[in-house]
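Reopening this one. Same input as before:
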Amino acid sequence: RRSSAPTPSRSTGRAAPGPDFDPTNIAVALPNDSNLVPAVSQALKELASEGVVTRLAAKWGIPEQVIKQASIGEVIR
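Same output, byte for byte:
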């Protein structure tokens, strides 16, 4: 029997209205002493402040509630 679950070939690319389910965090991980940390942090801040993140979410049909908070410069040890 064939599954009716969405697959890339059958997906409508749209999100269903309603509460979040299975929310997840996405991160960029770099070594604490990496020379890239300042540049990556600055780039992410600029993308957020210039509205690029919001525009990309809209382009790909990602609901606004999905992008709740960006924490930049957090160090996890």
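So the earlier flakiness isn't reproducible anymore. For the record, The longest helix spans residues 37-49.
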